[in-house]
From TrEMBL:
<feature type="transmembrane region" description="Helical">
    <location>
        <begin position="238"/>
        <end position="258"/>
    </location>
</feature>
<feature type="transmembrane region" description="Helical">
    <location>
        <begin position="270"/>
        <end position="289"/>
    </location>
</feature>
<feature type="domain" description="DUF5009">
    <location>
        <begin position="41"/>
        <end position="139"/>
    </location>
</feature>
<dbReference type="InterPro" id="IPR032176">
    <property type="entry name" value="DUF5009"/>
</dbReference>
<keyword id="KW-0012">Acyltransferase</keyword>
<feature type="transmembrane region" description="Helical">
    <location>
        <begin position="330"/>
        <end position="349"/>
    </location>
</feature>
<feature type="transmembrane region" description="Helical">
    <location>
        <begin position="157"/>
        <end position="175"/>
    </location>
</feature>
<keyword id="KW-0472">Membrane</keyword>
<dbReference type="Pfam" id="PF16401">
    <property type="entry name" value="DUF5009"/>
</dbReference>
<feature type="transmembrane region" description="Helical">
    <location>
        <begin position="45"/>
        <end position="65"/>
    </location>
</feature>
<keyword id="KW-0808">Transferase</keyword>
<keyword id="KW-1133">Transmembrane helix</keyword>
<dbReference type="GO" id="GO:0016746">
    <property type="term" value="F:acyltransferase activity"/>
</dbReference>
<feature type="transmembrane region" description="Helical">
    <location>
        <begin position="301"/>
        <end position="323"/>
    </location>
</feature>
<protein>
    <submittedName>
        <fullName>Predicted acyltransferase</fullName>
    </submittedName>
</protein>
<feature type="transmembrane region" description="Helical">
    <location>
        <begin position="182"/>
        <end position="204"/>
    </location>
</feature>
<feature type="transmembrane region" description="Helical">
    <location>
        <begin position="85"/>
        <end position="110"/>
    </location>
</feature>
């Protein structure tokens, strides 16, 4: 009997063991939730890197190129000009990368709320509110407060374009299962491509990719009651929103991977890096029938930008979140926390004047082109100081 009792006691876990197992499970669960809900430093840093070129980074490169006359800097400065129509430059990537990063954040914001039991209707209303606010802010940016007739008011805008493209992707994210998201991305891109291949403006064949001959340009200038950006075309026109929505949706796919428990962090980076040459290859092949045109948001251009966006996301995630080397990126993180402030501020506030007021005396002691370098650096510094002060006061302009 004693032997039997000893055997039974050894086979049954003690209360202490139960507590230890429970505590371990609770700790693992808490760590899992913390990891899923925590903010990605790399996301803010990459967004800040993207916006840096708007707050004077491009002007600084141009000034340095003029001062040094180094060929590689002069070549780099050329990348900070938009392609006139067909083609691709680094400057063409800034807008698409921002859209992509808005999608990367979706699993952390919308996905987290869905897991907490938020209703899809409530999240849908929130998305519509965000879209509406961005459209309205875009109209204000375009001078809409002048209250001119609709035919003289430009409704399409960068902020409105972001809002609608994000809204389309967000609705797909809310109502579609993750395994179908890639199919949605493909469908949006193919749908836009097929539309432009089949139909052109009157008296033009399908597959015409010119401002006056494309279906997108025709819709902008003839079927919409408001003012367009250019004579024949609007770079933030309606049809382009269809293909552009693939960028935040593609970003959401990447965000789901980064937020998932498995695979391991370094394996996630490998998955992203493996996707990059595939995307570049698809874009290159597609450009044979549909050229890279940023102002039309052609499907080939969108895939090309997605490849660059995935590559940059992988590199920033590896260095900052996986390896933990983030302090160098603090400069960019401060910028990335307030993107809407930056975009509206460049329109409303004279930061060039402010930087010249603060640093003009110093710059005046030097001749051109060094003076231009100092003023460009001063503009960046003025912006950064304002954004840093806003961060210290927890002031963020968000919709």
């Amino acid at each position: 009997m004693p032997d039997t009792l000893l055997t039974n006691e050894a086979a049954e876990p003690s209360a202490v063991d139960d507590i230890q197992v429970t505590e371990a499970l609770d700790k693992a669960s808490v760590e899992k939730e913390e990891r899923k809900s925590k903010r990605l430093r790399s996301l803010d840093a990459l967004r800040g890197f993207d916006m840096f070129w708007i707050v004077g980074g491009s002007a600084l490169v141009a000034a340095l190129a003029k001062f040094t006359q180094w060929p590689w800097l002069e070549r780099m400065a050329q990348e900070f000009q938009h392609a006139k129509w067909v083609g691709f430059t680094f400057y063409d990537l800034i807008f698409p990368l921002f859209l992509f990063l808005a999608g990367v954040a979706m699993p952390y914001s919308l996905g987290g709320k869905l897991e907490q039991g938020a209703s899809r209707l409530r999240l849908t209303l929130k998305v519509f509110k965000r879209v509406l606010l961005l459209v309205l802010l875009g109209i204000v940016y375009n001078g809409g407060l002048a209250l001119k007739p609709l035919a003289e008011t430009r409704i399409c805008s960068v902020l409105g374009f972001i809002g609608v493209a994000y809204g389309i992707a967000a609705l797909v994210f809310i109502y579609s299962k993750p395994r179908f998201h890639i199919a949605w991305v493909i469908g949006l891109l193919l749908g836009y491509w097929i539309s432009l291949q089949l139909f052109g403006a009157p008296f033009y064949e399908g597959g015409t990719y010119t401002p006056e001959g494309s279906l997108a340009g025709y819709v902008d200038r003839n079927l919409l009651p408001w003012k367009v950006y250019a004579l024949h075309f609007d770079p933030e026109g309606v049809l382009g929103m269809i293909s552009a929505a693939a960028l935040p949706l593609g970003g959401a796919i990447v965000g789901q991977l980064l937020r998932a428990d498995k695979p391991r962090d370094w394996q996630k980076v490998m998955v992203l890096l493996l996707a990059v040459p595939i995307l570049f290859g698809i874009a290159a092949l597609w450009s044979g029938s549909m050229p890279f045109i940023k102002k039309m948001w052609t499907s080939s251009f969108v895939v090309h930008c997605m490849a660059w966006s995935v590559l940059l996301t992988a590199v920033f995630y590896l260095v900052i979140d996986v390896l933990g080397l983030w302090r160098w990126s603090y400069f960019f993180i401060i910028i990335g926390l307030n993107p809407i402030t930056i975009y509206l501020g460049t329109r409303i506030i004279d930061f060039w004047g402010a930087s010249q007021f603060l640093f003009g005396g110093l710059a005046g002691k030097y001749e051109q082109p060094l003076q231009g370098v100092i003023l460009a650096a001063a503009y960046c510094l003025t912006w950064w100081m304002v954004l840093w002060a806003m961060h210290r006061k927890k002031m963020y302009l968000r919709v």
